[in-house]
Each structure stands twice: as structure tokens, then as C-alpha cells.
Write a structure and sequence with these properties.
The chain is an alpha+beta fold and 149 residues long. Helices cover 44% and strands 16% of the residues. It contains six helices and three strands. The protein is globular and about 45 Å long. It starts with 16 loop residues before the first helix and ends in a 9-residue tail after the last strand.
Length: 149
């Protein structure tokens, strides 16, 4: 699948480079990511507003979430990556409930799949998230630690 859900274990929530970099440095980094992506979503190819998404790998034995790089994503692809956060935002009234249906359609279009595939992907993603969230994870910013002053 080109577009997959990436749920962050609870103990890593808000532990990311964007939170620790000065705003000016984050803006410089994200603009470089957008430029490298030719101002298009790196998953679906759409243009318009972009988000700089931090890509992490997970070592389930060492319990380390490691920053591997960045990708430019449109709102829909970024929301799908963080579908758990979208659910929280819907519950708090910060996003409309109708957005979930829009995201499902986007997921199906990008991945050339159906509603059942989307449901199964969500189920598996939350299963992994629940298992990982029972443990205390550490965030490793990898080579990007050097960006912090």
C-alpha cells in the first residue's frame, strides 16, 4: 500500500523533532522537504497545503522509535497517517465527523482498494498500537539530533 496508517505508541506522543526545534529551524526544515518533493504530496501527488511528516521506524525488541526522515504530505494523507489523532479531534469537535468518510475514500483511491481493506488496515494498525502502547518506548532522533541547539 502506498498510504498506510502510522500510529505512535502512547509513550511517544509529542516526542518528536518538531516539538524540540525552534520554530524558525522547523520552518526551514519543512520548506526544504516541500521543495525536495516539488511541492507535491509524496504519496498521492496532490498540490496545495503540505505537512512535513516525520517518518519513524520501530524496534519492537529495544522499544525504540527512531526518526528516519521526512516526507511532504497533503492534509488527507497526513490525517490518515495519524487517524488515531483524527478520532480524538473529531471527539473534541475540532474536526467534523464527516472527515472520516472523506479519508476512507482518499485511502481507497490512493491504494486502489475497497472499504473492507480500509477497515482491516485500521484494525491491524490499532492492534499494533495497543501492543506497543503497553510498553515504555524511547524516541531516538537519529542523525537529526544535531539540529537541536
Amino acid at each position: 500500500m502506498k498510504l498506510e496508517i502510522e500510529l505512535v505508541p502512547k509513550t511517544c506522543w509529542y516526542n518528536n523533532l518538531r516539538k524540540v526545534l525552534p520554530r524558525k529551524e522547523w520552518d526551514k526544515l519543512r520548506k526544504e522537504v516541500y521543495k525536495k518533493a516539488e511541492y507535491r504530496c509524496e504519496i498521492c501527488g496532490s498540490t496545495g497545503k503540505l505537512n512535513c511528516h516525520e517518518k519513524y521506524s520501530y524496534d519492537d525488541n529495544k522499544l525504540v522509535q527512531k526518526l528516519e526522515g521526512f516526507v511532504a504530505l497533503c492534509d488527507n494523507c497526513h490525517y490518515i497517517k495519524h487517524i488515531g489523532f483524527v478520532n480524538v479531534q473529531i471527539a473534541e469537535g475540532k474536526l467534523p465527523g464527516t472527515i472520516f468518510c472523506e479519508l476512507e475514500k482518499h485511502f481507497a483511491k490512493v491504494n486502489e482498494c475497497c472499504h473492507e481493506d480500509f477497515k482491516e488496515h485500521i484494525r491491524k494498525a490499532f492492534e499494533i498500537w495497543k501492543r506497543r502502547s503497553r510498553k515504555n518506548w524511547r524516541t531516538d532522533l537519529g542523525e537529526y539530533i544535531n539540529l537541536i541547539k
